[in-house]
Amino acid sequence: MSIHPQIIEKDGKKEFVVLPYDEFVRLQDELEDYDDLKTLRQERALAAAEPTRSLDDVLKDIGE
């Protein structure tokens, strides 16, 4: 993804960035996807520590 920012300076220091709206929306979508990926990885790590049971054991318990 390429972006075309316009930098606005205030008192000689970089203060603001202006992006074309479509680039802003794409960047926002990418950040949301990244946040979702981080959450997924955290949940997988937590789930890996949980005890598991085989399907056969579960089926035996419910009488099938």
The assigned structural class equals alpha+beta
Low-confidence sequence ranges: none
Order of helices and strands: EEHH
- Total count of strands: 2
Helix content: 40-55%
Based on CA atoms alone, the radius of gyration comes out at 24 Å
Largest sheet: 2 strands, antiparallel
Please count the helical segments: 2
Task: Describe the global form.
Answer: rod-shaped
Percent strand equals: 15-25%
Mean pLDDT: 94
**Arrangement of strands in the largest sheet:** 1-2
Terminal Cα span: 53 Å
Q: What does this 3D model show about the protein?
A:
The protein is of the alpha+beta class and 64 residues long. It has two helices and two strands; from the N terminus they run ββαα. It has a two-stranded antiparallel ribbon with strand order 1-2. Strand 1 (6-10) and strand 2 form a beta hairpin. The longest helix is centred in the middle third of the chain and has 28 residues, at 21-48. The mean pLDDT is 94.
